[in-house]
Design goal:
Blueprint: H1 3-29, E1 42-45, H2 54-64, E2 67-69, E3 74-77, E4 80-85, E5 88-91, E6 94-97, H3 120-125, E7 130-132, H4 143-146, H5 149-157, E8 169-170, H6 174-182, E9 187-191, E10 201-202, H7 208-220, E11 225-229, E12 235-240, E13 243-252, E14 255-257, E15 262-264, E16 269-272, E17 288-290
Parallel strand pairs: 1-2, 1-6, 6-7
Antiparallel strand pairs: 3-4, 4-5, 8-11, 9-10, 9-11, 12-13, 13-16, 14-15, 16-17
Helix pairs in contact: 1-2
Length: 297
């Protein structure tokens, strides 16, 4: 993502964040552990300056008045997670986590991780610190789980989902796999655990070689993939060297959940594909952002 895209996204956060960083801080403050006494200490845990979203971590920490910390700034002291300060180590009550599960704690997860904090997961399990998002919540990003959402909503609420799911074929099921293989050139196929737009096939734009290669992947490991119809995403004009040109967009919305409330952020993050005809809007693959306008009915 280039400097201009960073500035555009920061501008978006400034527009939405003038009030919503307060809501985020309130949600984090409402999620304090039992060990918290008095005003909670909140920190944003970032992988560091080389992470593609570091600017976002720093911006949110600054707007919330929270501490911005990396793994090497923290250690476990007397059963609490504490951060390094000029006056020694001070306990932290709530951590807004922007480090993947696998790298959070080298004693409990990936032993090679240099981004996490040794022992932080043990403190979390003992109730000594709140971690948001909680370890394990990444299962909600599992693309196979998505296909079960209408059933989950009805099971837990007793009501039908208000919005329909995109039709999804779980390739782990023989009938679904057979259909996907027969219609591979028409579908979008995604890795169940994939992210950032990587490891996917957009059938209508794929070459014959790509289709053959992906067919082999599906037949070898069908459980790793789901498939969906190729959707016709909305477009928005962007300024190119040749003037205005349409690019595909999608909207990412945000919801803040705490023991006290569920708060839906008005608006959202509009992501735009910068390559002509591309359906991949992820910033990790060159996607950018556009202003999000919420119009009164």
């Amino acid at each position: 993502m280039g400097t201009g895209q960073y500035l555009t996204r920061i501008k978006l956060y400034l527009k939405l964040g003038n009030c919503d960083h307060k809501n985020l801080r309130r949600s984090l403050g409402n999620s304090v552990p039992r060990s918290c006494k008095g005003q909670p200490v909140i920190a944003v845990l970032t992988p560091g300056i080389y992470n593609s979203a570091y600017f976002e971590h720093a911006f949110l920490a600054g707007q919330m008045g929270a501490e911005l910390v990396e793994g090497h700034d923290l250690r476990v002291v007397d059963g609490r997670v504490a951060m390094r300060t000029t006056q020694g180590y001070a306990p932290i009550d709530v951590i807004y986590r922007r480090v993947d599960d696998d790298y959070l704690d080298p004693l409990n997860f990936n032993p090679q991780s240099l981004l996490g904090v040794p022992g932080i997961f043990d403190v979390y399990r003992a109730g000594g610190v709140t971690i948001a998002n909680a370890p394990g919540t990444g299962i909600a990003d599992d693309k196979a789980v998505y296909s079960y959402m209408p059933d989950l909503i009805e099971f837990y609420t007793g009501e039908k989902a208000l919005l329909n799911n995109v039709q999804t074929w779980r390739c782990s099921e023989p009938d679904a796999l057979r259909y996907v293989l027969d219609h591979l050139s028409e579908l979008v196929v995604k890795e169940v655990h994939g992210s950032g737009g990587y490891g996917m096939l957009v059938g209508p734009t794929a070459s014959n070689e790509e289709l053959v290669a992906f067919r082999n992947k599906l037949e070898a490991s069908p459980g790793k993939y789901i498939a969906q119809p190729t959707l016709s995403l909305s477009t928005t004009p962007i300024l190119t060297k040749n003037g205005l040109d349409p690019r595909h967009v999608d909207l990412r919305v945000f919801v803040l959940v705490s023991p006290e409330e569920i708060h839906m952020i008005p608006g959202g993050l509009t992501r735009v594909a910068l390559n002509k005809g591309s359906l991949v809007v992820n910033s990790s693959q060159g996607g950018g952002t556009k202003d999000t306008w919420v119009l009164e009915e």
